[in-house]
Design goal:
Blueprint (H helix, E strand, L loop, with lengths): L2 E7 L4 H14 L3 E4 L21 E6 L10 E6 L4 H12 L3 E3 L4 H4 L11 H4 L1 H8 L5 H10 L8 H12 L6 H19 L4 E7 L3 H5 L4 H8 L8 E6 L18 H9 L4 H15 L6 H17 L7 H12 L4 H12 L15 H12 L9 E6 L3 H15 L5 E4 L8 E6 L4 H9 L6 H15 L3 H14 L5 H14 L3 H21 L4 H22 L4 H21 L2 H15 L7 H13 L6 H8 L6 H12 L4 H5 L1 H12 L3 H16 L3 H13 L17 H15 L6
Parallel strand pairs: 1-6, 2-5, 2-6
Antiparallel strand pairs: 3-4, 3-7, 8-10, 9-10
Helix pairs in contact: 1-2, 1-11, 5-6, 8-10, 12-13, 13-14, 14-15, 17-19, 17-20, 19-20, 19-21, 20-21, 20-22, 21-23, 22-23, 22-24, 23-25, 24-26, 25-26, 26-27, 26-28, 27-30, 28-31
Length: 732
């Protein structure tokens, strides 16, 4: 007589996984059905491959979506997932294993909008925990299931509890469809002659799978469901994506802790705290074996006081904080990051189905020795080295495909031969690679096609310059001609000076990096030369008559162009730009105070003005409107307070202007001054304050340093010794 056993589990729980493995070994099924998409039946045997290292996930995606909206779904598995243990048991025992959930082809089609889930269906464990006197559902489940060692099987009790909870509750439409398909799969297994069938599913579904529901009713439920084409594969997953804080609906609070509970079959508390001590020692924190012993005692004492069968994560964390970390919170956070989440990236076998673009990226990662990792790390690249240059190009090409495995950050080096990247691999990148495979079968080919498309669809000049810069950084020479033609055409017809100025920084960076990377930039140089001339000619009418918001926006363009031309280091262009700024200052009445102050500062830094104190005196004179004077000061002092620290005359002018403001005017200009001085580093603000504090005692002359009383007779021996050390005077 056939027998069907339904094992209700929590999707990621070490106690459930361990209990399920033991129950399967006792039951000895001749077929195992697991909650999951049946399209994965064809690739489930890959789970037994030695190269398959969890955490991993089944990925279902629609290769050709009818509405253009590509959809995908993941079914993650960790080492401590009961479903994973069921699959591994079946494969090792030579027993057929199938997935029994509603097909992904149906699940990837959005279901009709349903009313909000009721509290019971949304959180059944919370109701059971509340009935047991717990205020934390996860802690209750840990105590009754995950922390259990030995004893009777928990599955009959789980089934009974879920049956009571569901009671007369009507299932939601999608839930009813899923459970109907699970029952249909069970019936098919029995028709095929299997006599001992084990079904592994979420505990909530157990009563529905045990219920005697006619096959005809399930057929009606499943008849006519919309579906789409799907493809299925395995992809690496991470513990971070198993955590509930990632937004994963079936996530757990502490994947690293659960993995430890599953892997450490004996003395888990001692092993965990020993590992925590090792982590702290790696950070040069003193932790002795005595600390570990006391922490174990404290964790066990806390568990006994709280009536728990085993110290849980809360207890070991409190013991870690109190004993190993001596009350400090930062070391606790280190352990949280490295152990509680326990971030790790799984691996899939080479023979796993992949699109060609994924295989090409894997080949490039091996060739360039750039391994993906679930832990964030910095990668410094020296572009003078061929391997590092190729790594940089690969990362830039992936960014062109919106696969942001690497994010460029500010390099610690001041030269252009170095790049610093922050690398972090996310499981979603596999979906993005599948989507990007529409552009080509290799990373280079796909990013080239994507660059051409981006150039053709760009509507703003700044967008085109960004594409050109990314092409040069990624060494996409085949895409550059199309991009440069589009860029030249757009620049020729765009008459908005603000657009031209916004486009220039990216083009200049592209030129500079093109030189470093050995990329041909001739056409780009022609465009830049033309832009500089047009900006300098069109600047006067564009920069006059601006209101406050427009002036602030235009100020950003001015600073960006000024910095870009300094980076370009073309003396002809720099001189043309400076003459244009000098021409603007010759008619200051037409300029916004913010703009006039900033242009004055730029020309002062360039050594082109020798009357800056007089200009500031006029700008902040009694006859000037306070708001315009404040804007002038803000523009002039933007970018740092070093000028005020070293120029006594300018500091005095600003001080006297502020001190002489009427009370109502001071209130009006205070936000502008606060914004200006608040942007300075604390050390600069402190130095400026010290200079102002000493002004009453210091000499008024700009170049007269304070005089110190020096006893020349007492200083003579020290001076002679210093001269002798420096070799400036021979010993007598």
């Amino acid at each position: 007589m056939s027998q069907v056993e339904v094992f209700g589990v929590r999707h990621h729980g070490p106690g459930s996984a361990r209990a399920l493995r033991g129950a399967l070994e006792d039951f000895k099924p001749d077929a195992v059905l697991v909650e999951g998409p049946p399209e994965a039946d064809a690739i489930v045997e890959l789970a037994g491959d030695p190269e398959m290292v969890p955490p991993v996930a089944l990925l279902a995606y629609s290769p050709v979506p009818a509405d253009g909206d590509r959809r995908a779904a993941f079914w993650p598995f960790a080492e401590f997932s009961p479903e994973w243990q069921a699959i591994r048991y079946a494969l090792s025992a030579g027993v057929p294993v199938r997935f029994c959930d509603l097909p992904a082809a149906n699940q990837l089609v959005p279901a009709e909008e349903e009313p909000p889930e009721e509290g019971l269906r949304l959180d059944p464990l919370g109701w059971l925990a509340k009935a047991a006197g717990y205020d934390d559902a996860e802690r209750w489940w840990d105590d009754v299931v995950e922390h259990r060692h030995g004893g009777p099987s928990p599955f009959p009790a789980i089934a009974e509890a879920m049956a009571e909870l569901r009671g007369e509750l009507e299932p939601a439409a999608r839930e009813e469809q899923r459970e109907a398909h699970m029952r249909r799969t069970v019936r098919r297994a029995l028709r095929e002659g299997h006599e001992r069938v084990a079904v592994v599913c979420g505990a909530w579904h157990v009563p529905a799978l045990r219920a005697k529901v006619p096959a005809a009713r399930d057929d009606r439920t499943l008849r006519g469901l919309p579906k789409t084409r799907v493809a299925m594969t395995w992809v690496p997953w991470t513990h971070g994506r198993l955590a509930g804080r990632s937004g994963y609906g079936a996530g757990v609070r502490s994947p690293g802790w659960y993995h430890h509970l599953f892997a450490a079959r004996d003395r888990p508390i001692e092993r965990w705290l020993t590992a925590a001590a090792r982590v702290l020692r790696e950070e040069d924190l003193h932790v002795s074996s005595a600390h570990v012993i006391e922490a174990v005692r404290l964790a066990e004492a806390l568990a006994a006081l709280r009536g728990r069968p085993l110290a849980g994560l809360d207890e070991v964390t409190e013991a870690t904080r109190a004993v190993l970390c001596e009350g400090a919170e930062l070391p606790v956070r280190i352990i949280q990051d490295r152990m509680v989440v326990g971030e790790r990236l799984g691996a899939v076998p080479e023979r796993t189905p992949m699109v060609p673009l994924q295989r090409d990226l894997q080949a490039e990662q091996r060739r360039l020795r750039l391994r993906p990792s679930a832990l964030e790390k910095e990668q410094d690249l020296d572009l003078r080295k061929p391997t590092d240059l190729e790594r940089s190009r690969l990362l830039h090409r992936l960014r062109m495909l919106d696969v942001n495995w690497g994010v460029p950050s500010e390099s610690r080096s001041k030269g252009t031969f170095r790049e610093t990247w922050t690398l972090l691999w996310r499981p979603e990148f596999d979906v993005e690679l599948i989507e990007a495979s529409a552009w080509g079968t290799t990373v280079r080919g796909a990013s080239t096609a994507r660059a051409r498309e981006a150039a053709g669809s760009a509507t703003a000049l700044a967008d085109l310059t960004a594409v050109a810069e990314r092409c040069l950084l990624a060494d996409l020479g085949d895409a550059l001609p199309a991009v440069m033609r589009a860029l030249a055409d757009r620049a020729a017809v765009d008459t908005d000076v603000a657009h031209l100025m916004a486009a220039m920084p990216a083009l200049v960076r592209a030129l500079r990096y093109g030189d470093v990377r050995g990329t041909s930039t001739g056409p780009l140089r022609t465009v830049v030369d033309g832009l500089v001339v047009r900006v300098c000619v069109g600047l006067p009418p564009a920069i006059t008559g601006l209101d406050d918001d427009a002036a602030r926006e235009f100020l950003g363009h001015v600073d960006a162009v000024h910095g870009a031309l300094s980076l370009l280091a073309d003396e002809g262009h720099i001189e043309r730009w400076r003459r244009a700024l000098e021409g603007l200052l010759d008619r200051p009445g037409a300029l916004h105070g913010l703009i006039e102050g900033r242009l004055t500062r730029l020309l002062l830094d360039a050594g082109r003005l020798d009357d800056v104190p007089d200009r500031m005196a006029r700008a902040v004179s009694v006859g000037a409107a306070p708001d315009r004077a404040a804007a002038w000061v803000e523009g002039f002092l933007a970018g740092g307070g070093l000028l005020l620290m070293h120029d006594e005359a300018l500091l005095r002018l600003v001080d006297e202007w502020v001190a002489g403001l009427p009370a109502d005017s001071f209130t009006d200009v205070l936000p502008l001054l606060r914004r200006t001085f608040g942007a300075y580093p604390a050390a600069e603000r402190r130095a400026i304050g010290e200079r102002l504090r000493r002004r009453g005692r210091a000499p008024a002359g700009r170049d007269r340093p304070p005089e110190d009383d020096v006893d020349e007779a007492r200083a003579a021996p020290a001076a002679a010794t210093a001269l002798r050390i420096l070799g400036w005077e021979r010993p007598a």
